[in-house]
Amino acid sequence: MDLRTPFLALLGVLCLQNLASATSAGENINTLQEFVIYPHVEKGLDAIAARHFNQAIDEFKQARSWAPKNPDTAIYLANAYTLNEQYELAVQVLSIQDRYTPHQPEVTELLQHAKEAQSHQLLLQAQSLPQPSSTLENILRNNHPPFGNAYDEYGWINLLASTFINQPDIVLAYHPRYPSNQIHQTELVLENALMVGNHAFAQTYLKNVLNEFGQNPEFLEQLSYQLASSGGEQESIQVLLYGYPYNDAHPSLQKKLMRNLVVMIGKYPNLIDSDALHTLAKPLDAPDLRAIQAHLFAELKNCPAVRTLLNDYSSQYTDAEWRLLGDCYQESAPGLSAHAFRQAMILNPSINNKRSYAYQAFAAKDFDQALETWKSIPVDHLSNTDLESAALSSISAKQTLPASAWLELYDTHDGPKNALYWWLRAQLEIPNNPQLAANFLNQAIAMQPTVDYYTQLASIQESMKQSQQAVTSLEMALKLDPSNSNTQASLGYAYYQNGDFQQARTLLLSAYKTHPDDPHLIQQLAYVDQRLGFNTDAERFSELAIDDYNRADTSGDNPDIDNSRFGMQRMHEDLSRRWTFSVDATGGNQVTTLPYAGQPGLSSRSYSQAEAAYRLGDPAIDDGKTISAYSRIFAGSGTLNTSIPLYAPMIAGGLRWKPFTDQTINLAIEEQTPLDHTAGNQTTAMLRASASFFNNGIYSDDWHPSGPGWMAQNLYLDAAHYMSTGITSLTSDYRISYHDKIEIGQTIEPYTHLQLNTLNDQANHDLRVGAGLRWNYWSGNTQYNAYPSKVSIGLEFQHAFTSYLNEKDVVFLTFGGRW
Q1: Which sign, positive or negative, has the C-alpha torsion 553, 554, 556, 562?
Q2: Contact, 114 vs 162, CB < 8 A?
């Protein structure tokens, strides 16, 4: 009777039973094992149906390597051995399984049949040997019969291995005649050694085996598999490492061996030493092999090795390799990580690849790309976390409509109202309802107080003119992170706006120590020191600020930079000024009033003045406030009908006080002494107050560095009282003009003005209108100083509506200079 008959019948029953549950979890099988095992089981059953038993054995071996303790894989493999008349191997597999799952009915039944078949087979082989009757062990130990074919020799080796499982030397004492059986003997000896836990012998013997057969990649593949399935994971890795990188193997086998090695090291990372890892980290020539290497080191969380292996960015890499690069560049290079995830998405536009790219594009601050990627993902694939991240990308890209839609969907999903949710809601309300935005931010802060939340709340409060609340918010932010230089700077700016310049300076200097190259800090420190009267420091910071402006705009065609730089240069020039010299002169065809003359109330056909002023004190200018000692010489035409201003010259000296920082108001007291007493003049004291309004910022007469020209205006008010004569004069003059640039530092200025003059000893007021044209020339600027000098020459026509003078129409020339 064919010994395989009962096994064929039993196999049919077991296959029907086990095939039905082959894809179920089963004992000791997880989802991944189930996924990997099923194809091998299916192929093995097909091979048995075709009576290709060796092929079936190979397939069931592969299945069992993934689940070495599962009874189904043992039954499949044992049946295949039995059908191939390899009863001893069937007994061996089932015996091992019986230890794992004792009292398993199918295993127990099949093991009994296998043992019976093995005994019957062994009985037939004793009968064939011309040896005297003896025990089986004596026969096997003392006889080394020659076999005429590899099949009979194969059975003898199996019998030796199963009989002397604990005595490998007896098995190895037999020297197989056929090469295939030599390999088979090696496998059985190693299997037995591992089965009984004799790893020392297995590893020593393995070295000799590898020296003999180690150049055969097929042998390495088979042996490593056999070792792994027999509990020899360390020996399996040893075998795979011996032949690495398998250059003699067929490309498909080479990749298979490398994948096997990756799987084994991934499962047992502690079984490999640093020297072996160093060898495995050396990039191989082929991209597909480097990809396998990279997956190994990704499994080992060794990102430097992954980056090295894939840094050629080969076009042959799949999206899986690009994802590895994306993961490994996230911390060190967010931009490269985003590029890698984008390549993975291009190669495979799956939802997961799109999601990974969207997150990383945001991390790399490419908000537009992050937003577009989120838009490409169907909303039913977005989790609540995804919806929040998509809304965050939308707001960061300054597109609020998508953010609003995603947050509405988040609400319908009952997403948790966390701090980020309230922050996102606040961003949507800032443009139209800042108070509601502030309320939302307060809810976010209540849940998760952060520096960023407090800082933005302060910004909103500033926009609503709640300056003190803004300061409080920034103070809370600084408490959370006292060393945060950005918060220090923001709070310093807020203190400056509130007029607390000393506090502002303390915080700004602290922030400046951390960011000494921050141009905004440098500029603000220049202004703070100027307000505090620390002029030396203000000059130093203004020079640094000017240097920054020069580096930022070497072309000189940025209006904002040009205007800011000039303002800093003007401040620097003003801080360093002690002396001021000025000259004014007019000459006309009729007597007229002179609103800007050094002798208020004077009516003359011509007039001239020269003045020298010196700023007193240390500092010379304190937050825009000054006290100056000055001396001047002036003369006019008096009652003479001449356009030469040489009549009745006088010298004057006095003190001029500018008491306010932000207003151009001057108070003066001076004594005037005639230089020509024949004219009837006498020494007198004069008290004077003058002011200039609206002549600042964009409407000032100072040079404007940007644009083709600018509008200027000025309201000049003047009140003077002469102590000796009791005369009081009042002057009000409003002028509007346009400076048309003709060259750098030069303008042509058409202007018109309305002027009102009164004297307390005159019955009538003088109300007149004037129109004129001036040429203005600025000069003397340096790298850090704005133009200190200005010269103006003009021609003006005046018409008096009412006047205490005889003539109502006047034409005169003007000249003015300041150095």
Answers
A1: positive
A2: no
Distance, CA of 117 to chain centre: 72
Helix (H) or strand (E) holding 672: strand 664-674
Q: Is residue 421 part of a domain?
A: yes
Are residues 455 and 492 both part of a single domain?
Answer: yes
Residue type, 516: P
Residue 40 neighbours by CB distance under 10 Å: 21
Q: Is the pLDDT of residue 51 over 90?
A: no
Is residue 90 pLDDT above 50, yes or no?
A: yes
Q: Distance (Å, rounded) from C-alpha 672 to C-alpha 260?
A: 108
Domain count, the chain: 4
Buried b (16+ CB within 10 A) or exposed e, 163-187: bbbeebeebeebebebeebbbbbbb
Nearest to residue 353, comparing CAs of 384, 322, 379? 322
As given in the structure block, the two tokens for residue 671 are 């004594």
Q: Over 60: is that where the pLDDT of 16 sits? A: no
In degrees and rounded to multiples of 5, residue 777 shows phi and psi of -135, 120
HEC secondary structure over 178-203: CHHHHHHHHHHHHHHHHHCCCHHHHH
How far apart CA 630 and CA 616 sit, in angstroms, is 10
Indicate the DSSP class of residue 625: B
Q: How many CA atoms lie within 13 A of 344 on its CB side?
A: 25
195: left (phi over 0), alpha (psi -120 to 50) or beta: alpha
Identify whether the C-beta of residue 589 lies closer than 8 Å to the C-beta of residue 642: no
Of the candidates 449, 497, 498, which has an alpha carbon nearest to the alpha carbon of residue 477? Answer: 449
Taking only the tens place, the pLDDT of each residue in 397-432 is 999 999 999 999 999 999 999 999 999 999 999 999
Q: Which two tokens stand for residue 225?
A: 């598999």
The backbone torsions φ and ψ at residue 590, rounded to the nearest 5 degrees and listed phi first, read -145, 165
Tell which of 107, 128, 149 closes a domain. 128
Residue 566 and residue 432 share a domain: yes
Question: Rounded to whole angstroms, how far apart are CA atoms 457 and 476?
Answer: 11
Give, in order, the Cα–Cα distances in Å from 444 to each of 362, 424, 433.
Answer: 21, 9, 17
Q: What DSSP state is assigned to residue 706?
A: S
Tell me the CB-side half-sphere exposure of residue 52, using CA atoms within 13 A.
11
Which DSSP symbol is given to 502? Answer: H
- Collapse the DSSP code of 586 into the 3-class scheme (helix H, G, I; strand E, B; otherwise coil) and give the result: strand
Q: What does the pLDDT read at residue 798?
A: 94
Which domain, by its residues, includes 683? 611-638+645-818
Amino acid at site 608: S
Which amino acid appears at position 67 of this protein? A
User: What number of other Cβ atoms are within 10 A of residue 630's Cβ?
Assistant: 18
Task: Compute the distance between CA of residue 125 and CA of residue 613 in angstroms, rounded to an integer.
Answer: 132
DSSP letter, residue 218: H
Contact partners, residue 551, CB within 8 Å, separation at least 6: none
Same domain (yes/no): 409, 426: no
In a domain, residue 466? The reply is yes
